[in-house]
Specification:
about 450 residues; about 10% strand; alpha+beta; 2 domains; five-stranded mixed beta sheet; Heat Shock Protein 90; single chain; 12 helices
């Protein structure tokens, strides 16, 4: 390697390290104190000077300097190593990209050879200026508009949990390291093709690169597994939260019914005492209907389905929709998991509510019938409302088709996908009186 002049050290290496560090940390959503950045620049400038004095060949020296740069970031900022790794790699990748694009362009424009620039301190400074200006521009934009690629939590030395999520760190690393290695290889071949340092170093660079590729391949496989695991865990957490919310609403509904029970008894007693027998009978029939609906739901012996139905009943009452349920026996053997139950029943009932709530309050009615017989579970959801034309009976099950404005049109498509997955069928009948969706799912235990 060539000896770095003091001029190049002060006007190229030091500001280069400051800009890379500043932009890198901004890209992960962290602002570093200016005094820290100056210390990082001075230390990295000294490291670059010593590395270039050493017999390390071109290409490997870039990897060595990058590793030492990350170590300096860790020592100066005392941020977690996961944070400085991502910040350092992002900053280096951006600077490397700018250099690979601008260097050939300005060399061609100024008609200098790469060898002349690398061996002249003044030319190095001259060619570094446009790269530095572009880095400054990117840094200002990140500061002005709070731009970042990876959002890290605010760092607090007292809170270790603020480190990046371990599930995603390896994913970021598996993406950034190959890009960094590709950048180094690209620039190294560009240097050797220009015969700036001779081609001897390539004999050593190839086996080192091969070993790094093997390591990165293993890391990539691990990253894929981590990603799949993280996505599955988040999906499960989200669904579990939905179910917990439904159960909480169920318990709230039960507490409310228990609280109101005494009031209902007092009302009936008062009507009887005053001789208002017809009014007492009517009031009692209404309450009996509510109680019998609740009792039917409890007989499902299916926690998730009961919780969902209780939630939908509360929603129906808020919309002034009368909802009747008929449960034919236990549904413990219903071959749907909790996510499928939520999607199937939720979409069918939501569609029924949307159709019914367009009617006058006295005409709003939805019926839900669930039965188990002859080797099948049969689910029927019926509602009063406008008829669905025969020409739409097939179209409404297609993804992204909807008769409503600003509606994704995925609900019934999801329902049919779930039904067909379990070897079942779904039928639609609609006339001026009511619309009925009837689902049949094979009973694998029947």
């Amino acid at each position: 390697m060539e000896k770095m002049t003091l001029l190049s050290l002060l006007l190229v290496s030091v500001p280069e390290a400051v800009l890379v560090a500043a932009l890198g940390f901004l890209l992960v959503g962290i602002r570093i104190n200016l005094s820290y950045l100056l210390i990082i620049g001075l230390l990295q400038g000294g490291v670059a000077y010593l590395v270039r004095l050493s017999p390390v060949f071109f290409g490997l020296h870039s990897i060595l300097e990058a590793g030492l740069f990350l170590l300096i970031l860790r020592l100066v900022t005392r941020l977690p190593f996961k944070v400085v790794t991502l910040a350092g790699l992002l900053g280096l990748l951006v600077y490397m990209s700018i250099e690979m694009i601008s260097a050939p362009f300005f060399l061609s424009l100024a008609r200098y050879s790469l060898t002349e620039v690398l061996h002249s301190a003044h030319l190095r400074i001259f060619f570094f200026l446009p790269e530095a200006l572009f880095m400054v521009l990117l840094t200002v934009l990140c500061l002005r508009f709070n731009l970042h690629l990876v959002k890290m939590p605010r760092f607090n030395r007292e809170e270790k949990e603020n480190n990046p999520d371990k599930r995603y760190y390896i994913v970021y690393l598996a993406n950034l390291l190959p890009l960094f290695l590709l950048g180094i290889m690209n620039f190294t071949f560009y240097i050797f093709r220009a015969n700036a340092y001779g081609g001897k170093g390539l004999d050593y660079l190839f086996p080192i690169t091969g070993a790094l590729v093997i390591v990165l391949s293993i890391l990539s496989f691990a990253a894929v597994r981590r990603t799949a695991s993280a996505v599955a865990a988040e999906y499960e957490t989200r669904k579990t939260k939905e179910i917990v919310n439904q159960i909480e609403q169920l318990l709230s509904s039960l507490r409310s019914q228990r609280h109101d029970f005494n009031h209902h008894l007092q009302t009936i007693y008062g009507l009887l005492e005053t001789g208002s027998f017809d009014e007492a009978r009517e009031y009692l029939q209404k309450q009996f209907q509510i109680i019998s609906t609740t009792d039917a739901l409890i007989r499902t012996d299916h926690l998730y389905l009961s919780a969902l139905l209780y939630t939908k009943i509360a929603l129906a009452r808020a919309k002034q929709i009368r909802i009747e349920t008929s449960i034919g026996g236990s549904l413990k053997k219903l071959p749907l998991n909790k996510e499928e139950i939520s999607s199937l029943f939720g979409n069918l009932l939501d569609n029924a509510f949307e159709a019914a709530e367009n009617l006058p309050p006295e005409e709003r009615e939805v019926r839900v019938e669930i039965a188990r017989a002859r080797g099948y579970f049969t689910i029927s959801v019926a509602n009063r409302g406008p008829a669905i034309g025969q020409d739409l009976h097939e179209k409404i099950f297609r993804p992204r088709f909807s008769t409503k404005e600003n509606h994704p049109g995925m609900g019934l498509a999801v329902v049919r996908e779930i039904v067909e997955k379990h070897g079942g069928s779904i039928e639609l009948s609609s006339d001026s009186l009511e619309t009925v969706f009837r689902v049949r799912i094979p009973d694998k235990n029947g």
